[in-house]
Amino acid sequence: xxxxxxxxxxxxxxxxxxxxxxxxxxxxxxxxxxxxxxxxxxxxxxxxxxxxxxxxxxxxxxxxxxxxxxxxxxxxxxxxxxxxxxxxxxxxxxxxxxxxxxxxxxxxxxxxxxxxxxxxxxxxxxxxxxxxxxxxxxxxxxxxxxxxxxxxxxxxxxxxxxxxxxxxxxxxxxxxxxxxxxxxxxxxxxxxxxxxxxxxxxxxxxxxxxxxxxxxxxxxxxxxxxxxxxxxxxxxxxxxxxxxxxxxxxxxxxxxxxx
Length: 259
Description:
By secondary structure, this protein is α/β, with parallel strands linked by helices. The chain has a domain at 1-31 and 57-76. It is 37% helix and 25% strand. The chain is built from 8 helices and 9 strands. The strands form 2 sheets. It has a 6-stranded mixed sheet with strand order 5-6-7-3-8-9, with helices on both faces. A 3-stranded antiparallel sheet has the order 2-1-4. The two termini are 35 Å apart.
């Protein structure tokens, strides 16, 4: 068994608002091993993104323990343990794709030569070789999101955190990017935390599916997927896939009835 790279024990997170305290996460216990692909699924407001942001030190638990590579999330952020991909690609329109990808490398003080070699490598990883000199507006939505993934990969963190990166894309593009993301994960061996609203997407991509309930966000089920690592899209027609999807749906339903 690989060592846990993300470990949550009894994590609670309460936001203080003008209308009083709001509990976003309640008693979250989860262990993610190196190289796993973990999807977080649940209804809007269930704490999926809040938990991802807590891993990235963008939010801070009120109580409980949360570690990333054995460190606090703040320490892991300083050591650049992860890359983060947001819902929107967030590319600067005045910078070329290559310059957008190299931005974190510039901030981190990498040499021009190192920046160039890393940009070329990650463009190849996300199948955008030859597009480095284009501007974001010259690329489709799916290509822009791949450029955003490339930027998160550029400094070669072991963990990739992805907050509904394909949610705004049409189903055909989304299917293709799901396939490409699986290939990328297989090639790089990275640990991926992935937030989604889509049951088929969660089942298709993941080695582990974390099902969450409406606020206060709790984990209602953790499903270890029996599917093989190599997954053609038509695996979605198999009994094994349909059975996992059914269990996810039951977990979501149970979360609602627990309220």
